[in-house]
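Phosphatidate cytidylyltransferase
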Amino acid sequence: QEVDLEERLHELDLRSDSDIPDVPPPTDSTPEILKRALSGLSARWKNWWIRGILSLAMISGFFLIIYLGSFMLMLLVLSIQVKCYHEIITIGYRVYHSYDLPWFRSLSWYFLLCVNYFFYGETVADYFATFVQRREQLQFLIRYHRFISFALYLTGFCMFVLSLVKKHYRLQFYMFAWTHVTLLITVTQSHLVIQNLFEGMIWFLVPISSVICNDITAYIFGFFFGRTPLIKLSPKKTWEGFIGGFFSTVIFGFIVSIHRILIEPKNDFVTECEPSELFQMKKYSVPPLLQAVVGWETVNMYPFQMHSFALSTFASLIGPFGGFFASGFKRAFKIKDFADTIPGHGGIMDRFDCQYLMATFVHVYITSFIRGPNPSKLLKQLLILQPEQQLSVYKTLKSHLVEKGILQPSLRG
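Tokens:
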């Protein structure tokens, strides 16, 4: 029996894509009321209506959560992250037949908790330092947060090593790697979504809504006008849908970037009384080549409208590659969808494969082109210091301003 098991594991290492075992297809989770209402339609149009109705329901729910505030949005992101992690890790369990591996299900979720503890702790320490400083019981957790996070992860690492079983080594390391790649895809990317939210509601809503717009309009254009296949990984994707989605998303990004609710960047975390320079109207010169076409020499725009063009362009040209990547992943393991959570759409990961790639781009874009010195953040850090340290900073800053001629040497304070 041990010889047979060893041979099976050896074959597992050497198999090709065609040898991957079939994962049971997801069941049809469409509500019965929809099935009866659409029973007379063809499969193509039935899928159209199911996707459309569920899309409207999800968008309505999203707007409701936006209305409830930023904290609820953070909970939404966390919930989506956990569900996406569950869908991907479950595929690994099925493909590699790892249900019976000792401790592994528990370790997978333990690592998820460890990584979330690290990232959310970093967020609390970064944005709520003043709040934490007022509560002595939290100061220890924040001061030694990274050491605690490392100790927690190290505990899981040691538990994994202790769980290694003869004849299962290779299989266990397969799943260890699978777990960590899944953590990289889901937890890290969702953390960037939270970071974008802290930069202002507009950096959360515009990128996400641009991806949603591109997904919907590309599907509509492809459904009605699609004739030319776009990529072999996704046979249903067409050039007509890709191009139609691009122009629709750019127009959508331009319109939504001037909406008054978004121009005022106030939310639960950003409390400036005055909009930043990104949301103040400015006059720009029209390039000479375009002046002959539009007939304008200057145009008044919000600076963010130009940034929204960059965001919508990425969402429509590069964002879909997140979906292509997910399609390749699903083809590699012979599955149609990650799960059957949303009728007509598949799993949660099927809906957020592009969102995670978009979140990374937005974070990189903000740090590269938008974010500058933040006086309010620096002030929070100064308030944490001891009084003698604050006084030392004050004296150093005063001496620097005197040398620059900004303050008079006789100034007291």
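Residues 13-17, 263-273 have pLDDT under 50 and may be disordered.
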